[in-house]
Design goal:
With 295 residues, this protein is of the alpha/beta class. The protein has helices spanning 24-38, 47-61, 66-73, 79-89, 100-119, 135-147, 165-173, 186-192, 207-210, 244-254, and strands spanning 5-6, 16-17, 123-128, 155-162, 175-177, 193-196, 199-205, 213-217, 230-235, 258-266, 279-281, 286-289. It is 38% helix and 20% strand.
Length: 295
C-alpha cells in the first residue's frame, strides 16, 4: 500500500491525502497528547506518518473521521485507546549489537574490570532504557557472558524498559528470525541460544541469558521506579524524538543514577547538552558523571 502524501490542494482542510480527512486541528490535538504523554515532539512534517499509523486504528474502531478519534482519546473512555495510540506512534528500530563500538566499550571499560569485584560478591546493575523488542538488553547480556560465562551465579542484573507495552511482550518472548540474529557471532549464538521448537528457522534466547534480564514498562518522562546505581545505562536513538528541554531533563536524571564507574551510552546522532554539566564525554557517544557531581 502506498504511503499517504502530504497535500493541501484537493481538500484544503486535510493535511494528508487518504480515505480520512486529517485536519491541522486533528494533528495538533494528537501531537499535543503524544507530547504530554511521552515527550515526543511531532512537527507537521510528520503528519503523513501519524496519519498512516493511526488510520489503522480508525478502521479497527469503526470510526469515520479523525475528529471522532480525537474525541475518543480526549474522553474518560479513551484510556485504552490512548495507550494503543502511543504504541502505534512510537518507533521500534533495533538490532543485535547496534553501534558495536558501544558493546566493545561496555565489555572493555565496564564489564571486564568488574569481574573480580563480582566474583568477590559485588553488585552490578545495567539498564536498557528504551529496549524495544529486546535486542539491546540481550546484546548487553551476551557481552557480559563473554567475559563472565557464569554471570547468573552473581549479583548482576539488566533492567530493560520501554514505553510500548506491546513491544515488551515481544521482547519477553526472546524469539528472533535467523536474519535478525546474524550479527551475533556463531559461537555466542550456539552457546547461549537454541532453535525455537515452534519454528526451526528462528532462534530463542537461552535461559542463562533470560535470567539476567528483567523487562518493565516505563515512560522516560514519567516516574522512574528504578534503583541504582547503574554501571551502564543505554538510552540510544530515542532522545532524538524529544525537544531540547526534555532531552536535558532526562540526561540530568540519568546522571545521579550512575555509579562512579558507570557510563551512559546514547545514539550516534545524539549528544548530551552542555546544559547538563554533571555528564562529560568518555568516548564516542559515551558519557560519565563528573567528579563534582559525586560529592
Amino acid at each position: 500500500m502506498n504511503e499517504p502524501v502530504l497535500r493541501r490542494a484537493a481538500d484544503p482542510d486535510s493535511l494528508v491525502e487518504g480515505e480520512y480527512s486529517f485536519t491541522g486541528d486533528d494533528f495538533r490535538r494528537i501531537s499535543a497528547l503524544i507530547y504530554e504523554q511521552a515527550g515526543i515532539a511531532l512537527t507537521e512534517a510528520k503528519a503523513s506518518l501519524v496519519y498512516s499509523r493511526l488510520a489503522k486504528r480508525l478502521r479497527a474502531l469503526g470510526l469515520s473521521t479523525f475528529a471522532e478519534y480525537c474525541a475518543l482519546i480526549d474522553s474518560p473512555a479513551g484510556d485504552d485507546e490512548r495507550s494503543a495510540m502511543l504504541n502505534s506512534l512510537t518507533t521500534n528500530v533495533t538490532r543485535f549489537y547496534r553501534e558495536p563500538h558501544h558493546f566493545d566499550h561496555l565489555r572493555d571499560e565496564v564489564l571486564r574490570p568488574a569481574v573480580p569485584f563480582l566474583r568477590a560478591g559485588g553488585r552490578m546493575r545495567l539498564w536498557s532504557a528504551a529496549c524495544s523488542s529486546g535486542q539491546e538488553p540481550y546484546s548487553m547480556a551476551l557481552t557480559l557472558l563473554s567475559v563472565l560465562p557464569d554471570a547468573p551465579r552473581y549479583d548482576v542484573k539488566i533492567l530493560a524498559t520501554d514505553i510500548d507495552s506491546r513491544i515488551l511482550d515481544q521482547a519477553r518472548l526472546g524469539v528472533f528470525p535467523a536474519d535478525l540474529v546474524s550479527p551475533i557471532p556463531a559461537a555466542q549464538r550456539d552457546r547461549w541460544m537454541h532453535r525455537d521448537p515452534n519454528d526451526r528457522s528462528a532462534w530463542r534466547i537461552g535461559e542463562d541469558v533470560r535470567s539476567l534480564v528483567t523487562f518493565k514498562e516505563l515512560n522516560l518522562i514519567g516516574n522512574w521506579p528504578v534503583r541504582g546505581p547503574f554501571d551502564a545505562i543505554f538510552c540510544r536513538n530515542v532522545m532524538i524524538y524529544f525537544d531540547d528541554p526534555t532531552q536535558e531533563r532526562i540526561c540530568a536524571r540519568f546522571a545521579p543514577l550512575l555509579s562512579p564507574r558507570g557510563r551512559l551510552y546514547i545514539g550516534h546522532s545524539e549528544r548530551v547538552s552542555a546544559n547538563v554539566p554533571s555528564l562529560v564525554s568518555d568516548g564516542l557517544t559515551v558519557y560519565r558523571r563528573t567528579e563534582a557531581s559525586r560529592t
